[in-house]
Amino acid sequence: MSTPTKVTFPSFMLTISGELYAPAPGSPNRKNAAIVISHPMTGVKEQTSATHARALSAAGFWALTFDAGYQGESSGEPRGLEDPHQRVEDNKAAVTYLTTLKGKVDPERIGVLGICASGGYTSYAAQSDSRIKALATVSAACVGRMTRNGGVYESNNKESPEAIQGALKAAGEWRNAHANPDNTKAKSETPKMFSTDLSAVPKDAPSFFRSAAEYYGGERGQHPRSDQRVPLSSYDLMVSYDSFTYQHLIAPRPLLMIAGSDAETLHYSKDAVATAREPKELFVVEGKNHFDLYDDLEQSGPKLVDFFSKVLSA
């Protein structure tokens, strides 16, 4: 398989770093269809996004991965900031970039794939961008509900006043501490969202955090630009954001949401598909958790290829 081409494109005032994968030689003719692939929170383009890009390019699609603004090789300060609206714009900007590839990509055949938090960001993008002709998600989650409800694994969909107040207090204190440019101590204390050392995860911790440490702390997902550090100022940006409120606006464009039966985040996909309109599908992979589907494409890979083939290149 050929090496992807390094590319850059603008998103708001930032420069986004991406990698463009060409259709593999001898692969099926997909009529110049292309897929934008958006990475998980705390991730970078070289991890699960690249795994999916290789599978889709091998099947004949153009595939574009990229680092979110403030993250990876993309520009923006503070590093690691998780800004939902920037993340949504990054996906729209990636679509815009693909439309400039005259003779390679058909602008009427562009789909988007979002993984984890990007399953939420790409949903939000597709709700208000008709250039996105099809949307698929893998292990989708909503960072807004995660923040308001007190955890990514909470499935009761009930806001927690304590969680909200705690998030806002931490964000406010973080902003105050960083108002002084000479406060080097504050700048060095960007916390990790979760540990990548499995031995440091308490045995009674939710399974999500153990699975996260297994993926990001091991050979499967470890990468030097993915350190899981998220500035606390991210949380007041996330608290009032919601990925799936207007999921029905994606129709009549097709929607596929994939999740593992054992994923702590399965409820996000179930709820989002329930509020969407046809054509829509929830594809549950039995026996898999949230992170399993980051690099185990045995079932989800063929499903994605079949979905995008039917809706973009038929």
Automatic annotation (TrEMBL):
Protein name per the record: Dienelactone hydrolase domain-containing protein
Species of origin: Sporothrix eucalyptigena
Family: Belongs to the polyketide transferase af380 family.
InterPro entries registered for this protein in UniProt: AB_hydrolase_fold (IPR029058), Dienelactn_hydro (IPR002925), Polyketide_trans_af380 (IPR051411)
Domain Dienelactone hydrolase: 27-136
SUPFAM superfamilies membership: alpha/beta-Hydrolases
Pfam families tied to this protein: DLH
Signal peptide (residue range): none
